[in-house]
Design goal:
Blueprint: H1 6-13, H2 17-24, H3 32-44, H4 51-58, E1 63-68, H5 74-89, E2 93-98, H6 103-115, E3 120-123, H7 133-140, E4 145-148, E5 158-161, H8 164-177, E6 183-187, H9 193-208, E7 218-220, H10 226-239, E8 245-248, H11 251-263, E9 273-275, E10 292-294, H12 297-316, E11 325-327, E12 331-333
Parallel strand pairs: 1-2, 1-3, 3-4, 4-5, 5-11, 6-7, 6-8, 8-9
Antiparallel strand pairs: 10-12
Helix pairs in contact: 1-2, 5-12, 8-9, 10-11
Length: 346
């Protein structure tokens, strides 16, 4: 059976296509009886409006792109949920693309989204992105970009972030206030701003408490994975048998640390406290449960879409976008991998 069109409805009813269209959109200048006839026929023939044609007429696609580094990461899965929830309220379709931390893949995805005439793009940079010409090309095409989580200060666009320096400072400060004096930090590559800021926050907490910075306590992950945390934990203990705290860049790395310390018969938190970052669901079921920084992915996703929608509307009005930076608050979630603040310091 051929697809029912607006012209088909108009021919059956003896009306003009414009009248049928107005009736379906509940225009006040169409009488109620006509509206009733049109709606009943449309429902009986299962008429669906052509959203692509409508988009072309309105100069919008009602589609946005969401570019993420990796889907399997708990934080980014929450981002996706938040974006989709907010987008559905505005009748937007979300195309989700994964870069796998590849700069080349990121460039390719942005080109694909431009070719699809999306109304806007939400972007978290890959760990290997150090050039931003491809993002500027999107913006120059009149497609708004909102960066979230992993951003660059060199890109002139709206951003939704957490204060990574402050969050890392608070995490390290918490370890210090529970008695830790020699804290190792496991970080990623110093390319994304998030890694840089968390490293700076760690150093600031040491400085505030007059603890000398020791570069040999900094360990770089090749990838932010369980296996990397598992491997690095043994190296930390071999290099620094007297270490009493570990602050990991992500929960998955921290969970790897917990596992290796357990195998080495090192008591957590009595000998070594461990602090993660993100608040994955797994942190509640590890042994011991993992203290961490709560990173609100769902809220960040919702806010990122809201900012993007605002920028899309601004451009539709022929106005210039004034980029804004939205900060989502974080907080420490104390669990059993760290001593309690009321415990006697070591």
């Amino acid at each position: 059976m051929p697809k029912t069109t607006l012209k088909h409805l108009a021919k059956i009813l003896g009306l003009s296509p414009a009248t049928v269209s107005k009736a379906l959109k509940n225009y006040p200048d169409i009488n109620e009886n006509t509206k009733k006839r049109v709606i009943e026929l449309a429902e009986s023939l299962n008429y669906q409006p052509n959203s692509l044609a409508q988009g072309l007429r309105n100069k919008e696609s009602k589609i946005i792109g969401l570019v993420i580094p990796e889907i399997v990461h708990h934080f980014f899965s929450n981002i996706i949920s938040g974006v989709i929830k907010a987008a559905e309220k505005r009748d937007y379709l979300v195309i989700i693309l994964q870069t796998n931390e590849s700069f080349e893949q990121e460039k390719l995805h942005l080109k694909r989204l431009m070719d699809k005439n999306v109304d806007g793009i939400l972007l978290s940079l890959s760990d290997n992105t150090t050039q931003y010409k491809h993002i500027k090309q999107v913006i120059d095409r009149g497609i708004p970009v909102v960066m979230y989580d992993k951003i660059s200060k060199l890109v002139h666009a709206s951003k939704v972030i957490i204060d990574d320096q402050k969050a890392a400072f608070n995490a390290t400060q918490y370890l210090i206030e529970t008695g830790c004096k020699k804290i190792a930090h496991i970080r990623g590559d110093l390319k994304p701003q998030t890694t840089i800021d968390r490293f700076i926050g760690y150093k600031k907490a040491l400085a505030k408490n007059n603890i000398p910075f020791d570069p040999t306590l900094i360990y770089k992950c090749k990838s932010l994975t369980f296996s990397e945390g598992f491997k690095i934990a043994k190296k930390i203990i071999n290099d620094h048998p007297d270490v009493d705290g570990v602050f990991a860049f992500t929960d998955l790395v921290a969970i790897g640390v917990l596992k290796r310390l357990s195998e080495l018969n090192i008591s957590v938190p009595n000998q070594v406290s461990v602090m993660g970052f993100s608040d994955w669901f797994l942190t509640k079921i590890t042994t011991p449960t993992l203290s961490t920084v709560h990173q609100p992915g769902f809220e960040m996703g919702q806010k990122a879409f809201e900012v993007l929608y605002k920028d899309i509307c601004t451009l539709k009005k022929g106005q210039k976008i004034i980029p804004e930076i939205i900060e989502i608050p974080t907080y420490i979630v104390p669990r059993n991998s760290t001593l309690k603040l009321l415990d006697k310091p070591r």
